[in-house]
Structure formats: structure tokens, C-alpha cells
Amino acid sequence: MTTHDDEYGKKTSLFDDTASSGATTSILSGAEESTEKDTSTRWHGGLDFGLLILRLVLGGTMGAHGLQKVFGLFDGPGIAGFARALGGFGFTSQTTLLSWITGISEIAGGALVILGLFTPLGAAALLGVAANIVYAKFHGGFFMGEGKGFEYELLLGAVAFSLLFTGSGRIALDVNTPWRRKPLPFGLFGLLLAAAASVLVIVLFR
Question: What is the H or E stretch that residue 123 is in?
């Protein structure tokens, strides 16, 4: 900082350009950081509402299928009936155990997705189930008919896959969690879990 006498004899302070530029850069940098922080928790209106609808439909649909398998609700087959159905899809080993695993995964995963709680885990569980069904039905063709076709399960799996990377949105219990603020790394982790679970089921139960 330097000073000089103006025409009235008063001392005037002058800041050099370097200091002024540094102060401006610091202020702008702080503003950018603040904006980034605000963006991670900002209300997105239609986007958050849309994610809520996807979660309710996906979690409710697959959760209801899980209740059919485990408890026989909604005219479901129950564990024994679903185990027999698995045999028709090429699963030949421990079909009763696989029925329990599938049903519980659908119920638990569906509940987590609906609540928006640990969403990456819930979506990964549902994606793993859908992926295995698509694999089992793949040779039956794409369109549904006479117990064949995998278009329905592919759609459910695609929604679960999407939620892994979008996160739950703000209308959820996950609002202030790291996996909602930064869904990409946790989405990749959930995708690896779903893939590993699918491979294990194929190897161990077919």
C-alpha cells in the first residue's frame, strides 16, 4: 500500500493492482464455492417430483411381487409355487432358497426405494432381480406373451438403473446423505453390487 498527498493535503491510500486483483479473485472463488454447495441441496421442483413418482411406481410394483412370492398375497404363488416357476426358467439348484432371496430382495429393495432411504442399495437390489429375470427370459423373445418375453422386466431394471445415478431426489429420507449429493460414485458401487449378485445367482442356481 502507498500513500500520497492530494491537492487538499490529505493522505490518500492506494492499493496496488496485484492486491486488488487477488482480493477480487478470492471473492469470486468464494462465491463459486458457495454456489456449488447450494446446488447440491437445491430444490428442483419437477425433477424431484418426477423422481418420487418413479420411486413409488418401481418400489411399489416390485415390492408387491415380493409379497406375492414370500407370503402368497395378491393371488401370488408363494415360495413353493415360485420355486416351481424358477425350475421352468432353467434354475435347477436350491430353487426354494432362491425364491426366498428374490422375494426378500424385492420387498426390502422396494421399501428402501419408496422411502428414499439408502437408495443406491435398494435400487441395486431391484436391478439385480430384474437383470436375472431378463437373463432367464432372454431366449423367449422381447415381447411378452404366454409367460415369455422380457420387456416388462427390462423396463423395471432400466428405472432401477437410472435411480442408481440420479439419486432419490429431495422428497426422500436420503436428503442430507453423501449418496444423494454425489450419486455417481455410489451409483457405480451399487451397479457393481447388482452385477456381482446377478453373476452369483446364475453360477450357483442354474
Answer: helix 119-137
